[in-house]
């Protein structure tokens, strides 16, 4: 086995997305625009759900939690990206890197389970409409949301510990943020165990909610096909279309990055997918849920009329 010298790391150097100054300025403007749209969109969703009593139901409760998670996730990545895009030296202290990895993993995992809980909510709404309010009562919704966060943060704690427990040979991370696969590449020792743990973690955090979503939508589609009127089928499908769009977007990007073959994607492709998930998805989520939702648009119109 090749001998490598272990390095005591006090800070990490992030290579970012580009070393070209003009490209970094362009990326700064692009990232700033996306970040501001993300902030405005998700804060607006939270305010509309809080102010309009017509949106006080389980579906919009989960949507508000999802918007809050997206806000926190973007804030854990975007401000540092913006600062580094205008900096010659892109450094991050060791413990800040640990915290960033932990928070981003925790929020990302929590979001997957939230999407699974939202799929269950849609299943109950379509397949058991007469018992919807009885089944999806307040305590169950709070319990599901809390459980999603607890599982996400617990899984992230385990993965963060085994990632930074490794001895590191250098401190240059080929990424724009502290990310599991990028940090693992710095290790001086064999990382087979870590790869196995990342695979197990990915299965639990990604595939289990994905299976729940698939099971829910199989039942939903079967129930919709049994509806006789075309208008009824269209209305039932409309209540699920936004959620299904977000599910395909979020699960698809992450499965490609973490569960695909090692040779299928380069480090640059991994950064591109990570950028999509960190900035594009949180920006698009409120747009998808608002533009296709008459109740949200009505709530927005009502608020605008007041002001």
Spell out the blueprint of helices and strands.
Elements: E1 11-14, H1 21-51, H2 58-85, E2 91-93, H3 94-127, H4 132-135, H5 138-164, E3 172-173, H6 180-184, H7 192-225, H8 230-259, H9 267-291, H10 294-306
Parallel strand pairs: 1-3
Antiparallel strand pairs: 1-2
Helix pairs in contact: 1-2, 1-9, 1-10, 2-3, 2-9, 3-5, 3-7, 3-8, 5-7, 7-8, 8-9
Strand content: under 5%
Percent of residues in helices: over 70%
Average pLDDT for all residues: 85
The major sheet is characterized as: 3 strands, mixed
The class by helix and strand makeup works out as: mainly alpha
Instruction: Walk across the major sheet and give the strand order.
Output: 2-1-3
Radius of gyration: 21 Å
Number of helices: 10
Residue runs with pLDDT of under 50 for 5 or more positions: none
SSE sequence, one letter per element: EHHEHHHEHHHHH
* CA-based shape: globular
Distance between the termini: 69 Å
State the total count of DSSP E strands. Answer: 3
Main location: membrane
Function: Putative odorant or sperm cell receptor.
Subcellular location: Cell membrane
Protein name: Olfactory receptor
Overview of this structure, please?
This is Olfactory receptor. This protein has helices at 21-51, 58-85, 94-127, 132-135, 138-164, 180-184, 192-225, 230-259, 267-291, 294-306, and strands spanning 11-14, 91-93, 172-173. With 307 residues, the protein is mainly alpha-helical. Helix 1 runs parallel beside helix 9. The model has no long low-confidence stretch (mean pLDDT 85). Helices cover 75% and strands 3% of the residues. Strands 2-1-3 form a three-stranded mixed sheet.
